[in-house]
Amino acid sequence: MIDDKKVEMIKDALKKNSKGLTIDEVAEWCRMNRMTASKYLYYLLGRGDVEARKVGVAILFYIKK
């Protein structure tokens, strides 16, 4: 089940960090479990609300402009 409050928290975190955030950084920023952050980020990616870019071994997520 998707929680709209968590979706908004993640979107706000990404808006405030224009250089992008990793899953771990989103989890820390939003004070949630890494697996929860990952689930929501990939949900938002599937919806087209965020973009992802691989940098080395990390995947950075950005709010879609």
Average residue-wise pLDDT: 97
- What would CATH call the architecture? Orthogonal Bundle
Using only CA atoms, what is the Rg? 10 Å
What structural category characterises the helix and strand content?
alpha+beta
Order of helices and strands: HHHEE
Major sheet size, sense and barrel closure: 2 strands, antiparallel
Write down how many β-strands occur, each being a DSSP E stretch of 2 or more residues.
2
| CATH structural fold name | Arc Repressor Mutant, subunit A
Question: What's the helical proportion of residues?
Answer: 40-55%
- Characterize the overall form: globular
List low-pLDDT spans: none
- In angstroms, what separates the terminal alpha carbons? 26 Å
Which CATH class is shown? Mainly Alpha
The percentage of residues in β strands lies in 15-25%
Individual helix count: 3
How does this structure look, described?
The chain contains 3 helices and 2 strands. It has one domain: Winged helix-like DNA-binding domain superfamily/Winged helix DNA-binding domain (Arc Repressor Mutant, subunit A). α2 packs across α3. It has 65 residues and is of the alpha+beta class. The chain has a two-stranded antiparallel sheet with strand order 1-2.
Short description:
This protein is an alpha+beta fold and 65 residues long. Helices cover 54% and strands 18% of the residues.
List the SSEs and their pairings.
Blueprint: H1 4-16, H2 23-30, H3 34-47, E1 50-55, E2 58-63
Antiparallel strand pairs: 1-2
Helix pairs in contact: 2-3
